[in-house]
Amino acid sequence: MNPTRKGRQEGRRQYLLVAALLLCAAIAGALGGWQIKRLAWKEALIAHVAGVMREAPVAAAVLPFAPTTETLEELEYRPVEAAGHFEPSATTLVSALTEEGAGYWVLAPLRLADGRVVWINRGFVPLGAKREALAAATPAGPVTLVGLLRKSEPAGRFLQPNQPAQERWYSRDIAAIAAQRGVQGSAAWFLDAKGDRAKGERGADQPIPGLTVVTFPNNHLQYALTWFALAGLCLFGVWLVMRRRD
Question: What parts of the chain have a pLDDT lower than 50?
């Protein structure tokens, strides 16, 4: 092969290799930057939850039922006290995977004295639980309970959209559940009921409360350093290629 032609081909391969390495470095650097942003978000979330959970419960009736996004961020995980009557016929089971295993969250609307509704996640029940039995076992008289305020979870899970017509709920989408059950005046948020998690005397129709996840893994710094190290290796590779070319 002509030496000049061979040199040109080798030069093109080196340019392509450099371009590929630079592209990988840019992608890895961007992912590292994204993990740094995630780190800041996770640290803020952990600090927020630790702070608001120590506060005294606030009455549900005084909270905004249709808060702005910013207000909802401030309210989430805050202890809230709600008093009223359950409407058992609207009980809804939502798919759940918890430390107790696979099963369902049991959601039921609590009608306040002023007529508005707060949906209560009464707790977890295992697979095989029946909506009718859970509805029948719901307290019939006035109740007062404390729960942690949570955001609604619209649409469903990734690749598992909620299917109201088939009674297949994969997320706690309060607006969709309320519409399906014909419940008017619902808050845009719901409460995860707090309570005794012991199962000793619980029947199959008694949900286990208190399973809200309030401890969050935080590995974003390690992930960021890994991506930045990969970007550095790619740049080092560029230097080696260019040094060989020279």
Answer: 200
Structural domain of residue 28, as residue ranges?
Answer: 3-47+219-245
Inter-CA distances, 50 with 60, 67, 214, 228, Å = 20, 22, 8, 30
> What residues does 85 pair with on adjacent strands?
111
**CA–CA distance, 241 with 105 (Å, rounded to integer):** 57
Same domain, 21 and 66: no
Q: Give me the number of domains the chain comprises.
A: 2
